[in-house]
Amino acid sequence: MAGNSFGTLFRFTTFGESHGPAIGCVVDGVPPLLELTESDIQNYLEKRKPGQSRFTTQRREPDQVKILSGVFEGKTTGTPIGLLIENVDQRSKDYGEIKNQFRPGHADYTYWEKYGTRDYRGGGRSSARETAMRVAAGAIARKILGDDIKIRAALVKMGTKEINRDNWDWDEVDNNPFFCPDAQAVPVFEEYLDGLRKDGSSVGAVIEVVCSGVPVGLGDPVYDKLDADLAKAMMTINAVKGVEIGNGFEAAELTGIENADEMRLGKDGKPVFGSNHAGGFWAGFHQVRTLSCALPSNRPARSSPLAKALISMARKSMSSPRVAMIRVLASAAFRWAKPWPPSRLPTTFCATAHSAKAGTPTSIFQASFRASFPTQSERANIASQLVSCRV
């Protein structure tokens, strides 16, 4: 049975079954001299462990992790790190009645067809119990990434019930059993889920993940795109049926203008993005310092009317110098967040374009602007199209 490992430079392999004596993993690719203790890992396992509320499995597992190798005197040695968690509350007899039955929505049938056998005690290897070791390996990965990169997640939808995004508070996530950022939505979720439990049923949910402080350029082209790797990782989690990056499937309803993430030059000389429809990825590479993905939905942001006007002007213009000039005007205009009086438009553009187009004297740019749009009527037309636009 292959498929038990994930990663390349940082790689972990999990082992064990839900009702076996223990579960564990081997983590390879960890640099030496990294401070690491069992408590560093345990803090994350405490958030995941079962039996903490009436809304999760009632199996009681302390999930105490043991470091078996790869750490000496509180620091990593650069060799593989072995981790182990003993199972103490299996209660295998609870599954005796389904020994000869296949459960819908589980791996019972497919495992039987592929391997000719199955572990009916909680699903064996296919159980979500395995995810405890992903959390343990992930805790080590967090130590490697450092504090500059922040990774946060929250429940934003449960069945037909959604949070109010105006109430989003990251500090609220750890204060309720749903890891929900909207305190007002928690009692709604509780009542909704209690009703489903009384009916002997359950319901799906949507988790939104946001990563900030991520350096630009992570990922490799074609088959090793970062968003593809993340999607694969998410899809291997039990019960996950979809992953959306940025706007996800809602991007199909947007035009190219609406879906584009516009850029402007920041004060530090680096690009600033006006939106994040792509979820932080261009061509599979990480392109902004904030990633967003959802399991399985996300909300689009609004597009700038300024971009629509400028693109419309560029499409109508048959002169390549004019198209180039419009692009420069766009770069300059993105510095402004207010309407421009028609009388001041050319002067404003000339002044701001001087800083946007470093090294070009204002007089030269102004001459280029007038050459591209020689008549007052043409310049007035630009003003009429842009006067009401806001970035």
Quick structural gist:
With 391 residues, the protein is α+β, with helices and mostly antiparallel strands. Helices cover 31% and strands 17% of the residues. The longest helix has 15 residues.
Number of strands: 16
Instruction: List the secondary-structure elements in sequence, H or E.
Output: EEEHEEEEHHEEHEHEHEEEEEHHHHH
Helicity range: 25-40%
Radius of gyration: 27 Å
> Segments where pLDDT lies below 50 for 5+ residues?
296-304, 332-344, 352-361
Query: Could you tell me the mean pLDDT?
Result: 80
Largest β sheet strand count, sense and barrel closure: 5 strands, antiparallel
Fraction in beta strands: 15-25%
The helix/strand class is alpha+beta
Could you explain the architecture of this structure?
This protein is an alpha+beta fold and 391 residues long. The protein contains eleven helices and 16 strands. The strands form five sheets. Strands 1-2-3-7-4 form a five-stranded antiparallel sheet, covered by helices on one side. The chain is globular.
Write the layout of secondary structure elements.
Elements: E1 5-6, E2 11-16, E3 22-28, H1 38-48, E4 65-67, E5 71-72, E6 75-76, E7 81-86, H2 108-115, H3 131-145, E8 150-158, E9 161-162, H4 186-198, E10 205-212, H5 226-235, E11 244-245, H6 256-259, E12 263-265, E13 271-273, E14 281-282, E15 285-286, E16 290-295, H7 305-316, H8 320-333, H9 345-356, H10 362-372, H11 376-386
Antiparallel strand pairs: 1-2, 2-3, 3-7, 4-7, 5-6, 8-9, 8-10, 10-16, 11-16, 12-13, 14-15
Helix pairs in contact: 1-3, 7-8, 8-9, 9-10
